[in-house]
Amino acid sequence: MFEDEEKDAENEVEVINSIYGENTLKRAPDVAPGVYLLAIPQKDVTLRLSIPNQYPSVSLQITAVESVGPATRKGYGTRVLNIAREVVQKVLTPGQVCIFNLLQDLEQRLDQESATEHEQLANHSYAPDDDKSPPDKVVISDQNDAPNETANPPQWTLSATVTEKKSVFIARACAIQSTSEAQVAMTHLLSTDKRASKATHNISAYRIRTLVNGHEVTYQDGDDDGEDAAGGRLLKLLQMMDVWNALVVVSQWYGGVKLGPARFGIINAVARDAVVAGGFAKDPQPHR
Question: How far apart are the C-alpha atoms of 59 and 178, rounded to whole Å?
Answer without folding.
Answer: 42
